[in-house]
Write a structure and sequence with these properties.
The protein is of the alpha/beta class. About 50% of the residues lie in helices and about 10% in strands.
Length: about 325
C-alpha cells in the first residue's frame, strides 16, 4: 500500500496510546519537534505527565484515533495491541489513510496478520520498536527498527527523527522480529556477564577492574559497558525496563526461531533461567536484577569459602 498517506510535518497531530516510562518522554520530544500530540493511558498520572510535557491528554484511545493522522502504539505486547485496535470505538475512529505505528514489542507474525486486516480498511500499520531504554527515550536518541514499505517509512521520517535514528529492517513485521532477536542477545549477554563477574568476585577480583579489562577485550558487550557499571555495581537496578518484559521479548525470539526452523538451544536455556528469576523476584523487578538473582543462586550453591587448588606442588606430590 503506497497511497492515501498524509504528508507528515510540523503541526500534524500525532497520537500516542500508552504513556508509560517510554511513551511520555517520546511525546515530549514530539512536542518539542513541533507536532501536536494527543495521548491516552489507562493511568491518570501518565496522562497528567503528558500534559506537563506539552501534550494534550485524551479520555480514551478512540479519542486519540479520531484526532490524529498518525497514532503511535506503545503497549506491552501483541495481546494489548490487538485489544486496543480491535475495540469497536477505536476501529470506527480510524479514518482511511491513518497510519498506526506499533512501537511495542509485538510478535512479528501477529503484526503481519494485523497489518493485513487493517489494510482492508485503508489503515496502514508499520512496526517500529525501539532500543535504548528510558534514558534515550528522554534524549530522543532511541534506535528505531522499522518494518514497512520504504516509501511509507520515508513519509514518517520527521516523526521518527524526533525520537531517534531509524533503520528499515524490511517489510512489516521485520522491526518486531529484529527487536526480539536483539533482546534475546542482550539478555543472554547480561546473564553470562553476571555469572562471570560474580564468579570473579568470589575468586577475589575487583569487579570494577574486571570491567575495565573486559571492556578493552573481546568479552565486552552492552552489559559490561553499560548495565553492570550503571545499574548493578551501583545497586540502583533502575534501567526502566522490566525483567518480565525482557523475558517476554526473549520468548518471542525463541518462538520465531522455532517457527522458521533454526537452532535455539542456547536461547531456550537462557529463557529457562530468566523464567526462574522472574518467579523468584518481585513483579516490578528491573531486568538488571537478573544479576541479583544470579548472585543469590551462586551463594546458595557454593561453599562459604572458595576452594582454590594449590598448584605449587610438583607433579606426583599430594596436594
Amino acid at each position: 500500500m503506497t497511497e492515501a498517506v498524509p504528508a507528515i510535518g510540523a503541526g500534524a497531530v500525532i497520537g500516542i496510546v500508552g504513556l508509560g516510562n517510554m511513551g511520555t518522554p517520546m511525546g515530549g520530544n514530539l512536542v518539542a519537534a513541533g507536532f501536536e500530540v494527543r495521548g491516552y493511558d489507562v493511568a491518570p498520572a501518565a496522562r497528567t505527565a503528558l500534559a506537563d510535557a506539552g501534550g494534550t491528554p485524551a479520555e480514551s484511545a478512540a479519542e486519540v484515533a479520531a484526532a490524529a493522522s498518525v497514532v503511535i502504539l506503545m503497549l506491552p505486547n501483541s495481546d494489548v495491541v490487538e485489544a486496543v485496535v480491535g475495540e469497536p470505538s477505536f476501529a470506527e475512529a480510524l479514518a482511511a489513510g491513518t497510519v498506526l505505528i506499533d512501537m511495542s514489542s509485538s510478535e512479528p507474525l501477529r503484526t503481519r496478520a494485523l497489518a493485513e486486516r487493517l489494510a482492508a480498511d485503508g489503515v496502514l500499520l508499520v512496526d517500529a520498536p525501539v532500543s535504548g531504554g528510558v534514558s534515550r527515550a528522554r534524549t530522543g536518541t532511541l534506535t528505531i527498527m522499522a518494518g514497512g514499505d520504504a516509501g511509507q517509512l520515508d513519509r514518517l521520517a520527521p516523526v521518527f527523527g524526533a525520537l531517534g535514528t531509524v533503520t528499515r529492517a524490511g517489510d512489516v513485521g521485520a522491526g518486531h522480529a529484529i527487536k526480539a532477536l536483539n533482546n534475546l542477545l542482550s539478555a543472554t549477554h547480561l546473564l553470562a556477564t553476571s555469572e562471570a563477574l560474580i564468579a570473579g568476585e568470589r575468586f577475589g577480583l575487583d569487579p570494577a577492574v574486571m570491567l575495565a579489562i573486559i571492556n578493552s577485550s573481546s568479552g565486552r558487550s552492552g552489559s559490561t559497558e553499560n548495565k553492570w557499571p550503571n545499574f548493578v555495581l551501583s545497586e540502583k537496578y533502575d534501567s526502566g525496563f522490566g525483567l518480565r518484559l525482557m523475558l517476554k521479548d526473549m520468548r518471542i525470539a525463541v518462538a520465531l526461531a522455532q517457527q522458521v526452523g533454526t537452532p535455539d538451544a542456547l536461547g531456550r536455556g537462557a529463557v529457562a533461567l530468566w523464567a526462574r528469576a522472574a518467579e523468584a523476584l518481585p513483579a516490578t523487578a528491573d531486568h538488571t536484577e537478573i544479576a541479583r538473582w544470579v548472585r543469590g543462586q551462586q551463594e546458595a550453591a557454593l561453599p562459604t569459602q572458595p576452594q582454590i587448588r594449590d598448584h605449587s606442588t610438583t607433579r606426583g606430590e599430594s596436594a
